């Protein structure tokens, strides 16, 4: 009897050991490995300002990278960053006090958080003073945005923007600290913009230390608000705004479907129409402002429909004011054209007219179609914004090489220096 009891206890003991051992083996085989995260940009103790794109990488050793979520904390609560394997977060510091800030990041794989990684950044947004250059330029480009439109525009508009920046800095004496380039979601993609994200605009090698960011609705609004606040401090302020994107319309519908609709352009995550832009720019006091919208069906931004015909009063954008020159690359009813490597056609020509001086002396002509002048009185060796507009419009209509694009109908609303019954004989010369 005792022997049977001993055998029974031994068997139970063996079974329990086996179950326990099996449990630990099973637990070891199924145990989740914590994900990993790194901050690649900026570096620890970097001095930053305006828009700071914090970016890095994350990975899941268990091979489930697609389920990763990246969170970031900047002296506050954890918030979600964009992306996972390659992630980024735009920290807009326009209204934040200068000083040292701790940036912390972590990622989650559905079961566990990674180790928290962190850096310290020194925020220093310098004040613009009377002795500085009171000129600001904002380049807004949404070329390869997802979902809403499968037609990608490549990196051509970004390349063109950076060519213009070079000219603005070296020839027009714009300060690099007053120049902003907002492109897509702030990332450069391979295959000239058609492929996967490679690195952020800040990370890549670039010629000038301008402020880069994404062309998202929140970044566009905060950047324009910042520029307006700064420019309004000075009576001699000059503001240049360039928007290049898809315009909202349908080429298969008569007049693009825009007869009773406003002109609008896509940003990376939203769209903005002419009225919204007008409301956003309403507080701007600068009397030296040039705004160019290079997109399809964009005439409404200049309060024009087609053939220089004013927009219906119900659809006025209210962007136009004294001291402003508003230009659209197309009429409200026409499509525009662009190169995926060199950018939008109209702006290429407009910039060429200024860069080479070819536009010197160009006049409005009949219906403001543009025409060259043979009289020296109209040529002073300087090219105004308006002269270059008429040069670009004339070139599109008259060049044999551009016959396929000659129906774009660029529009202009010239109120520099003020509204005139006929047309202003004094042009806005950037940088003066």
Features of the shown structure:
432 residues; Immunoglobulin-like; Rossmann fold; 2 domains; 7-stranded mixed beta sheet; 6 helices
Plain-language structure description:
22% of the residues lie in helices and 25% in strands. The protein is of the alpha/beta class. It folds into two domains: 36-123, Immunoglobulin-like (Sandwich), CATH 2.60.40; 135-414, Rossmann fold (3-Layer(aba) Sandwich). The strands form six sheets. The protein has a seven-stranded mixed sheet, sandwiched between helices. The chain has a five-stranded mixed sheet with strand order 2-9-8-4-5, with no helix packed on it. α5 (345-356) crosses α6.
Helix-strand blueprint:
Blueprint (H helix, E strand, L loop, with lengths): L1 H29 L5 E6 L5 E2 L2 E9 L9 E6 L4 E2 L1 E2 L2 E7 L6 E10 L8 E7 L11 E8 L13 H15 L8 E5 L3 E3 L7 E4 L10 E3 L3 H15 L6 E8 L18 E3 L4 E3 H8 L7 E6 L29 E5 L9 E2 L3 E2 H12 L28 H14 L12 E4 L18
Parallel strand pairs: 2-9, 10-11, 10-15, 11-14, 15-18, 18-19
Antiparallel strand pairs: 1-3, 3-7, 4-5, 4-8, 6-7, 8-9, 12-13, 16-17, 19-22, 20-21
In short:
By secondary structure, the protein is an alpha/beta fold.
The gross shape turns out to be: globular
Helix content: 10-25%
Low-confidence stretches: 14-28
CATH class of the largest domain: Alpha Beta
Report how far apart the termini are: 112 Å
Per CATH, the architecture of the largest domain is 3-Layer(aba) Sandwich
Strand ordering within the main sheet: 14-11-10-15-18-19-22
Q: Would you tell me the structural class of the helices and strands?
A: alpha/beta
Order of helices and strands: HEEEEEEEEEEHEEEEHEEEHEEEEHHE
The whole-number mean of residue pLDDT values reads 90
- Strand percent estimate: 15-25%
């Amino acid at each position: 009897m005792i022997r049977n009891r001993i055998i029974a206890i031994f068997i139970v003991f063996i079974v329990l050991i086996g179950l326990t051992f099996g449990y630990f083996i099973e637990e070891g085989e199924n145990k989740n490995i914590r994900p990993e995260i790194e901050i690649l940009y900026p570096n620890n103790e970097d001095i930053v300002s305006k828009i700071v794109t914090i970016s890095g990488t994350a990975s899941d050793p268990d091979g489930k990278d697609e389920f990763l979520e990246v969170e970031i904390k900047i002296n506050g609560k954890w918030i979600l960053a964009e992306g996972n394997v390659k992630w980024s977060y735009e920290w807009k510091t326009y209204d934040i006090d200068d000083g040292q800030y701790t940036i912390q990041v972590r990622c989650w794989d559905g079961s566990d958080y990674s180790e928290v990684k962190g850096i310290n950044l020194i925020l220093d947004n310098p004040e613009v003073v009377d002795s500085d250059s009171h000129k600001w330029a904002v380049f807004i480009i949404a070329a390869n945005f997802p979902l809403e439109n499968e037609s990608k525009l490549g990196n051509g508009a970004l390349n063109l923007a950076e060519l213009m920046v070079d000219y603005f800095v070296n020839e027009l004496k714009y300060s690099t600290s007053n120049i902003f380039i907002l492109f897509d979601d702030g990332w450069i993609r391979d295959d000239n913009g058609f492929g996967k994200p490679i690195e952020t605009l800040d990370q890549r090698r670039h010629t000038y230390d301008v402020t880069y960011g994404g062309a998202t609705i929140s970044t566009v609004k905060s950047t324009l608000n910042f520029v307006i606040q700064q420019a309004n401090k000075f009576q001699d302020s000059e503001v240049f705004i360039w928007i290049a994107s898809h315009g909202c319309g349908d080429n298969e519908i008569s007049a693009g479907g825009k007869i009773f609709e406003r002109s609008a352009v896509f940003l990376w995550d939203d769209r903005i129409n002419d009225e919204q832009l007008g409301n956003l720019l309403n507080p701007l006091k600068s009397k030296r402002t040039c705004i160019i919208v290079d997109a399809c069906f964009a005439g409404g931004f200049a309060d024009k429909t087609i053939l220089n015909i004013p927009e219906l009063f119900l659809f006025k954008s209210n962007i136009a004011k004294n001291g402003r020159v508003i230009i659209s690359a197309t009429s409200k009813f026409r499509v525009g054209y662009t190169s995926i490597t060199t950018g939008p056609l109209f702006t290429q020509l407009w910039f060429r007219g200024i860069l080479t001086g070819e536009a010197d002396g160009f006049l409005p002509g009949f219906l403001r179609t543009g025409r060259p002048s043979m009289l020296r009185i109209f040529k002073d060796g300087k090219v105004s914004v308006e002269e270059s507009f008429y040069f670009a419009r004339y070139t599109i209509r008259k060049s044999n090489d551009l016959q396929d694009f000659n129906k774009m109908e660029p529009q202009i609303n010239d109120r520099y220096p003020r509204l005139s019954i006929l047309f202003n004989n004094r042009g806005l010369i950037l940088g003066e």
